[in-house]
Amino acid sequence: MDRLTLNVFRFTAGIDYLPYYQKLSFCFQDSHCLEDVLQYIQKEIRGFEYEQDRLTLRLNGIVIFENLPVMDLVQRFGNEWVIEPVSIYYAKKDLILNKKAIWKRYETFFQDADFLTKSDKEAFEDYMMINFITPMDNEQYYGDGFFLYIKWLLSRYPQKSEELLEILKDKKGGIMNFVSVAEFAYPKAEKIDQEIWDMIRERFELYN
User: Fold this and answer.
1) How much is the pLDDT for 139?
2) Measuring CA to CA, which residue among 153, 163, 159, 94 is closest to residue 122?
3) Residue-level pLDDT at 206
4) pLDDT tens readout for residues 127-172
């Protein structure tokens, strides 16, 4: 039976001053998936939390959103894993992020877009974690997930395109600051790259 060495990120906002890592060893079989590793960690470390409804984490610096086979992950990352939240800055409890703080970044947008329904706004959660794939260090950048959310809104509210596209044009935080994220997720986020580049070409005629 093969073994994983796990270095698990730990942090509880309001209690811990700084994050720390706990080391564990996990014996895995061919049938094991990432979820099995997380359940093992939860069993071994009292109070450990992760997003059970929507798997999201960073493994050796690379973002993962899927319950992939451990064997597949070992081939890609080896047998020593560092497991962290997708954003240490927004860490609330171990691998869970402070979503209220993330929502606050978009408060002005949602206030201005008063035509959006409650379900429209809630749909942003489907895109939120994509924001954290990028390696770019730019606090003003609205995020790739946010841009894909805008794309979704454009399909629902074409009559509001001018209003919705305005935020994408922002010089410091807008879509023209996009950098490829394909290599920073596993499996590679090539579809996200393609969708963002398509938006740039279609909406801003960058290559015309």
Assistant:
1) 87
2) 153
3) 45
4) 999 999 998 888 899 999 999 999 999 999 999 999 999 889 888 8
Binned at pLDDT 50, 70 and 90, residue 1 comes out as low
**Domain 100-204 belongs in CATH node 3.30.450.20:** no
CA dist 7 and 81 (Å) reads: 6
**Strands 96-97, 62-64: parallel, antiparallel or unpaired by DSSP?**
unpaired
Strands (E), the chain: 2-10, 20-28, 57-59, 62-64, 80-84, 91-93, 96-97
- CA distances to 70, 77, 92, 154 from 84, in Å: 17, 14, 12, 34
- Mark residue 62 as left, alpha or beta (left: phi above 0; alpha: psi -120 to 50; beta: remaining): beta
| Tokens 């329904």 sit on residue | 117
Contact 9, 97 (CB under 8 A): no
CATH of 2-97, one of 1.10.10.10, 3.10.20.30, 2.60.40.3880, 3.20.20.140: 3.10.20.30
Mean pLDDT computed over every residue of the chain: 94
